[in-house]
Design goal:
This protein has helices at about 1-70, 90-95, 140-145; strands at about 80-85, 110-115, 125-135, 155-165. It is α+β, with helices and mostly antiparallel strands and about 170 residues long.
Amino acid sequence: MNASIRNGTRSFDKRVCRLKEQNRRGQAVVEFTLIFVLFLVIAWIPADFGLAFFTGQLAQNASREGARIAAADPTLTTAGGFCTMPACPGNILSEAAGRLSSALLPGATISWALDAGSTPPTCDRMVTVIISGSYNFFFYRLLGLMGFSVDDQIPIIRTTSMRWEHQC
């Protein structure tokens, strides 16, 4: 009788141990999932700021290229122009828009202006190209979905001025 009770207890103990091992495996999966999500959040924050910095560099390069084209254009007769991405007609505006990412800087505004001439001419007229838009942080949008009140965008404004070559 004692042997049968012992054998029954042993099989019960083995079943309990197996259940505990299965529960531990489930616990490991839950812990891994939570840590992995936390790691993604921690890794995404610097990547998001890096993308914002990269977008600012793209905007600066686009304004510089637009100013370079405008400075070398002998047919500038108007005082300026502007457009909103992605529809940018005209040589200066389309070349500047071609260097911007509409995904990183949606709805960016590109404008250019030629300084008014003076009498007598002083040969110092400048062409200025301004690119402005807002970069939207991805992670801050997620914080907004969780109920936190955060500003999820940063304004990016880049300006370049160059001497207009076709004067005097």
